[in-house]
Amino acid sequence: MPGAKADYGPRLLLDGYRADGGALTGPFIRVRGYKKGTPYQTAYTLRADGRAVLGDICASSQNHLVGCAAGYGVTVLPPQKGRATLRLSGREGPVSDITLPAGQVLDVEPSPDGTRVAALRTVEKRAYERDAVLYLDIATRDGKVLSRQVLGSFGVRRDGEPQVRWVDAGRLLTATPRTTSVTYSASGHQVSLWSLSGQGPRWIVGRGELRDAVPSPDGTLFLTVRDGSVPEVRRVSDGAFVRPLGTAVTASVPWPGGSALLALDTGDGQGELRVVRPGSQGRRLGGPGLEGVTGLAVSPDGQFIAAARSESVAVLDRAGRTLHTFALPENVYRTELGFSGPRTLFARLESGGDDGQGRTWDAVTGRLLSQEVNARPVGTMQLRTEVRQRPGGGSQSRLGVTDQRGRVVWQEAWRSTSRPYLLPSPDGRAVVRGVARPIKGVAYRSDLYLYRLDPRTGRADPGLALRVGDLRDVYRGLRLLDYARDRRHVLLYEASGDGCGAAFYGLRLADLEARREVKLPPALTTGLTRLTGCGYPTPWPTAAFTPEGTGLLVRDGNALDWWRLQ
After folding, report:
1. Is residue 173 within 8 Å of 109, Cβ to Cβ?
2. Rg of the chain on CA atoms, in Å
3. Which of 57, 213, 385, 521 is spaced 20 to 30 A from 392 at the CA atom?
């Protein structure tokens, strides 16, 4: 959709409407966006010979929320005194106006026979209310409305894209936002089946990890998408999983010999680990029980694998057999893994509202070595960061190292920065440090000053300063991503975000010995740029140095690319 961009770009949704009366079969895709500030939509369906573009749908009601099915259409008219009116029209029967109870209509669709309209309606006390009540309304042409509450923790908003679709004249599927996190808005749906009678759904599947629910023409199956990547076919009668339509990469890490270790989502919440080379399917590691992996790390000698999931971290051997499993605290939403040496595993845990927690284990014995908040292993020592509030406002931080007995080896002076950015080298013999340096004459903006230090002595080499691409964006910054085995090259990414909206602007590469930035191909900079936000499962690129240190493995969603460094 060239030129159709607003609020994080065009939105693609699975749908059930057939603009040609049902002659085309296959998943139907509805697209919404903007062109020069004007709402724009189109649609296409997938066929064996490619996509067939069907053009604008419900064009006469383009500026209003609309729904279409089998020759019937419904338009949501502007509300009067807080109550929306649904205008139902079609090839048979007169135009009918139906007034709903108070609230905002989020999605709507007429029944296949045109006798009823289904709507999802939210009732908010303010512009955005996390616990706003969501209702499923089923209205007849004569104005009778049956309302049932859709239970769950939703955080419903227009950009949550809730969905209601008729299976047949007597049953409906809803896909509604659901989140169990106290810190994040919903990024997926739970799917429910409803009939024309009764107060509750017949069944509910998903806990926010599915998206959309499109019934098959015969009403026996429906299509949904798991975690924004894997289409799944399920039964309408009970919601049971039938089969996946592909797999998705949920985590990746370079593997020795020019390969990559991938964590795959194979559908129905199942997963596997696989080692692949460019252009090959690769080989599977281990057995079942490797679902939901969100992060991977490999020890420097390739003997151990660490896999992070929402509630645990597992240590596996080179063949993928689980050796140890470590439980994580509640409400951890991000886990970063890394090895310090051949057997020491470190995990940084983020749970919202804090500076992160640390865990260090011995991969051989499974023994917990440390759980200090601001400490991480580097060789046989511990890097420690301290943060304090200044009397006049603001904060300061400093970095230090302690030995195996907890004695301070060295400690730097306090710096006027809120938090230190650092990464140890794979062998633990060097640390790359990032410090914010205010830009003279530019308020609230800083360069990132990078330098290398010896963790044994604290001695630092001269560094270099990197600047973001646009100083006008106060949320834009640089973050350390990986440190090469040569202890010379540092990989970073540039991004912007303000809590619910975010942008990725590409990768950056620094040479600490030459004290200069290395120019990367446009495919790794502007070619990776994208916008994302709450409720939109847009892939966020990741990258890492290969174990040999001669190249990069870049993953963008399910796409893997190997790049050789000159």
Report:
1. no
2. 27
3. 385
Give the span between the Cα atoms of 437 and 185, in whole angstroms. Answer: 33
At CA 521, angle to CA 520 and CA 524, rounded to 5? 85
Determine contact, residues 446/426, Cβ cutoff 8 Å.
Answer: no
| Cβ–Cβ < 8 Å for 191, 41 | no
Position 160 scores a pLDDT of 59
Q: Which of 165, 71, 57, 169 is nearest to 118 (CA)?
A: 165
CA nearest to 109, candidates 174, 27, 187: 174
Task: State the DSSP H helix or E strand holding residue 481, giving kind and residue range, or none if neither.
Answer: strand 476-483
pLDDT score, position 51: 65
Q: Which of 498, 507, 510 is nearest to 540 (CA)?
A: 507
What pLDDT shows up at residue 2?
Answer: 47
User: Residue 87 corresponds to which tokens in the numbers above?
Assistant: 């205008």
Q: pLDDT by residue (tens digit) across 260-318?
A: 999 999 989 899 999 999 877 789 998 777 888 999 999 998 999 999 998 899 999 99
Backbone angles phi, psi at 343, to 5 degrees: -135, 0
- Phi, psi values for residue 195, rounded to 5°: -110, 180
Which tokens hold the place of 326?
A: 């470590």
DSSP 210: E
Hey, what amino acid is at 294? T
The number of beta carbons lying within 10 Å of the beta carbon of residue 25 is 12
> Can you name the residues that pair with 325 across neighbouring β-strands?
314
- Cβ atoms of 484 and 490 within 8 Å: the answer is yes
Q: What's the DSSP call for residue 413?
A: P
Q: Tell me if 72 sits within 8 A of 110, measured CB to CB.
A: yes
Model-level pTM?
0.83
Answer whether 229's CB lies under 8 Å from 557's CB: yes
- The tokens describing 229, both together, are 């990547």
Positions in the chain whose pLDDT score sits under 50: 1-2, 4-5, 61-62, 183
The beta-strand segments (E) located in 151-282 are: 163-168, 171-177, 189-195, 203-215, 221-226, 230-235, 241-244, 248-255, 259-267, 270-276
Q: What is the spatial distance between Cα 63 and Cα 73, in angstroms, rounded to a whole number? A: 14
According to DSSP, the β-strands at 221-226 and 464-466 are unpaired
Q: pLDDT value at position 286?
A: 83
Start-to-end CA distance of the chain, whole Å, equals 35
* Rounded-to-integer distance, Cα 232 and Cα 367, Å: 40
Please list the residues that pair with 379 across neighbouring strands.
none
541 burial class (0-12, 13-18, 19+ CB within 10 angstroms)? buried
- pLDDT given at position 344: 93
List, in order, residues 6 or more apart from 358 with CB less than 8 Å away.
346, 347, 348, 349, 370, 371, 372, 373, 374, 375, 376
Contact 189, 213 (CB under 8 A): yes
d(CA 384, CA 399): 6
